[in-house]
């Protein structure tokens, strides 16, 4: 790969990051800058871009419970939105045709509907990155948003198969039958492969060879295979570690994906104007999401935050438009329109998602509240009972703190909070008092009875931003007890103390001192 590509991509990503926007916006801009400099996409870059999208879908599958797709708020919203937004954008594109743009003059209603279908998708790449940065992948609004995106990806895969005119091989059905039978074998090998590079390599083998390659071999879309393999492995205890090991890998490959968007072609003035019009229509697309979520009895906050994470155009929509152009169903200029609309929607959506909680607070009094009796079961207020110690985040550190406190003082009343339903069910089997809750949800802190019996709160979430936000909400609720939080870096401790944290613990330093104490206690 040309060093100039890497240098420009890094420079643009750094500049955008320093002004508080996601680096991916810089990578998109780098693609257009490189295009203006005379660079073109090549086979290596396209391969890396496709690999990034494939690994992204595999990592999504690792975190996805198949039951999520069967929820009404997921499949109902996804199906309702794809139909309603396709109709909306078809009318918009036909309306643009009447404005006299040369690019739109030859657009027939069938082509308008195809382009509208591409515009109806929301970005999986953008939403996953935003949710991962906020540690919101396991929150209720995050699960609902990702579920809708996976459904949209399945619609896209179905379109790829139909439009390519490929009839899946008769062996496709056999593959779908054989894979579940092989699942125990995959699990056994994962357990025997250890926790290092061998386990990661086996996961890559499953994603790219068994999933991607196997599905392509029988006439199905390879990306769908990677997603399904990830979903098959999601229940394995090593799935969270695998997802973490894939995180940086897929991030690097996705840089190539964003560069490729800008390298596909330079925009014309008509393309720029049409893309700007599509940006103005984006709030209507968002409004459709919000109304569909509300019909599923979600709280205004859940509906609004899930909507904001989906308020953009999609890389899969761009792929749909590109495939249609390859088959002569659309002109390549419309692919450029889709890429510009995608880029500027990211620019518009990034600050919204960075400030989504502040936006909700400003709008919460204007949004019509739901009757608590009619709320979705996963969106109900949380009762902490008579607990006097609350541990927020029941990962390894939270679990260790819970067990240590229980052994030191059996009389204390402990309760743990976590947003991961799978983890909660496992902890309950160990007789650990844990309830489902989203500590990044301002409504959780407003409605939880933290001011009565509660004396101490431990913030043990792995994400520093999550702990900071939770501490802000705790102080806003006038909690008079003590608050402790974990940190990884010294500057994080300073930020937490400024917000009023009573105790901070560096997990790396405490691990060393804890190790020493353990040895001293056992050796005298």
UniProtKB/TrEMBL annotation:
Chief subcellular location: membrane
Annotated compartments: Membrane
Superkingdom to which the source organism belongs: Bacteria
An individual GO BP term: proton transmembrane transport
Gene3D superfamilies: 1.20.1530.20, NAD(P)-binding Rossmann-like Domain
GO cellular component: membrane
Domain RCK N-terminal: 386-505
Transmembrane segments: 7-37, 43-62, 74-96, 108-128, 140-162, 168-186, 198-218, 271-290, 302-322, 334-354
Keywords annotated in UniProt: Antiport, Ion transport, Membrane, Transmembrane, Transmembrane helix, Transport
Keyword Transport in record: yes
Transmembrane found in the keyword field: yes
Membrane disposition: Multi-pass membrane protein
One MF annotation (Gene Ontology) recorded for this entry: antiporter activity
Pfam families with a match to the protein in the record: Na_H_Exchanger, TrkA_N
UniProt record similarity statement: Belongs to the monovalent cation:proton antiporter 2 (CPA2) transporter (TC 2.A.37) family.
PANTHER family on file: CATION_PROTON ANTIPORTER YBAL-RELATED, SODIUM/HYDROGEN EXCHANGER FAMILY/TRKA DOMAIN PROTEIN
Protein name: Kef-type K+ transport protein
Annotated source species: Oceanimonas baumannii
């Amino acid at each position: 790969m040309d060093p100039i590509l890497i240098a420009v991509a890094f420079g643009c990503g750094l500049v955008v990051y320093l002004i508080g926007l996601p680096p991916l916006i810089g990578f998109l801009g780098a693609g257009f800058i490189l295009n203006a400099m005379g660079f073109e996409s090549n086979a290596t870059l396209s391969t890396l871009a496709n690999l990034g999208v494939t690994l992204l879908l595999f990592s999504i599958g690792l975190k996805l419970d198949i039951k999520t797709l069967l929820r009404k708020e997921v499949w109902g919203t996804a199906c309702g939105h794809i139909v309603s937004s396709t109709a909306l954008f078809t009318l918009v594109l036909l309306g643009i045709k009447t404005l006299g743009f040369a690019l739109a003059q030859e657009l027939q209603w069938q082509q308008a509907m195809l382009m509208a279908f591409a515009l109806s998708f929301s970005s999986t790449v953008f939403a996953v990155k935003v949710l991962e940065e906020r540690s919101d992948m396991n929150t209720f609004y995050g699960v609902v948003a990702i579920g809708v995106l996976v459904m949209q990806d399945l619609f896209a895969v179905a379109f790829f198969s139909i439009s390519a005119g490929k009839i899946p091989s008769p062996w496709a059905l056999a593959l779908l039958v054989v894979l579940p039978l092989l699942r125990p074998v995959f699990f056994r090998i994962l357990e025997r492969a250890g926790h290092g590079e061998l386990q990661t390599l086996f996961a890559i083998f499953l994603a790219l060879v068994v999933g991607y390659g196997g599905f392509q071999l029988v006439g199905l879309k390879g990306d769908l295979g990677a997603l399904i393999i990830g979903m098959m492995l999601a229940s394995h205890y090593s799935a969270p570690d695998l997802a973490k090991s894939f995180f940086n890998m897929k991030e690097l490959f996705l840089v190539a994906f964003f560069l490729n968007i800008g390298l596909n072609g330079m925009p014309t003035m008509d393309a720029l104007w049409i893309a700007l019009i599509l940006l103005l229509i984006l709030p209507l697309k968002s409004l459709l999401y919000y109304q569909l979520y509300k019909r599923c009895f979600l709280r205004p906050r859940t509906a609004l935050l899930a909507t904001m994470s989906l308020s953009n155009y999609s890389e899969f929509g761009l792929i749909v438009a590109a495939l249609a152009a390859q088959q002569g169903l659309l002109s390549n200029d419309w692919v450029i329109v889709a890429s510009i609309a995608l880029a500027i929607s990211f620019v518009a959506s990034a600050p919204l998602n960075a400030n989504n909680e502040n936006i909700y607070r400003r709008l919460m009094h204007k949004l019509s509240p739901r009757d608590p009796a009619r709320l979705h079961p996963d969106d109900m207020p949380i009762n902490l009972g008579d607990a006097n110690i609350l541990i927020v985040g029941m990962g390894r550190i939270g679990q260790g703190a819970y067990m240590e406190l229980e052994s030191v003082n059996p009389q204390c009343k402990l309760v743990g909070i976590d947003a991961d339903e799978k983890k909660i069910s496992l902890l309950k089997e160990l007789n650990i008092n844990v309830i489902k809750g989203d500590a990044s949800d301002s409504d959780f802190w407003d409605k939880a009875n933290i001011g009565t019996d509660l004396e101490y709160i431990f913030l043990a979430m792995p994400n520093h931003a999550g702990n900071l936000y939770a501490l802000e909400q705790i102080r806003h609720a006038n909690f008079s007890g003590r608050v402790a939080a974990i940190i990884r870096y010294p500057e994080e401790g300073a930020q937490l103390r400024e917000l009023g944290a009573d105790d901070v613990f560096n997990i790396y330093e405490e691990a060393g001192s804890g190790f020493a104490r353990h040895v001293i206690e056992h050796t005298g």
